[in-house]
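hey can u run this one w/ coenzyme A bound, need the structure tokens asap thx
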Amino acid sequence: MSEIIISLAHPKLEKVYLRPLEKSDASRCCRWINDAEIRQFISNQNLLSFSQEEKWIESANNGKEGINLAIITKEKNIHIGNLGICDIDWINRRGTTGALIGEKDYWGKGYGTEAKLLLLKHVFDSLGLEKICSTVLSTNPRSKAYLEKTGYQEEGCLRRHQLVNGIKADLFVMALFREDFYPIWKKYTGE
Ligand SMILES: CC(C)(COP(=O)(O)OP(=O)(O)OC[C@H]1O[C@@H](n2cnc3c(N)ncnc32)[C@H](O)[C@@H]1OP(=O)(O)O)[C@@H](O)C(=O)NCCC(=O)NCCS
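ok here u go:
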């Protein structure tokens, strides 16, 4: 992937814009990823050191592994989380998205939905991908709802797949096809 993203935004999406991650974001990202309340929702449940986080941001910036972006509030310019796409398969034109809003005051207020819409528009329009996958734990209904709001549908369920707080949670496999995305983009942006 040779393209360098400066930022992604849309005037009708009033809550957030996306920009590339910077090394100076590392301590914030480290705080988020090591927070037990957040970690219970994500598939990589290992603790990460500051230097691991810095290295991850460096690789996120080189554009080879996928795209990883910071979610910034438009109102106060606050970095509230990250999202991205990885495992891009150029032959089959698909990839896998993931997101994390680390500032918990912003959960459930539509910030994740706007951020995901901006990323999806880019991956369908500019990267030419056709299918986007994601996984979500059964213990995370907010994340499942937000994926469904942006058009993802459940394709399957890996039962009793991941230990979460001592209980084996199911893992839903979700996917969104390009043609199902554009009506949702239109609903939010009018375009
Ligand atoms: C998952 C995440 C990115 C979603 O972003 P968000 O800004 O919180 O989500 P949104 O507000 O855009 O959408 C959430 C939807 O879920 C709904 N919701 C919230 N809590 C819910 C619950 N317990 N059950 C069902 N739906 C719920 C909200 O009402 C909202 O739908 P609505 O706008 O129709 O009312 C964010 O919450 C987050 O990062 N959480 C912690 C880490 C995480 O879970 N990462 C994802 C791993 S797959």
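The CA atoms of residues 30 and 50 lie 6 Å apart. anyway lmk if its weird
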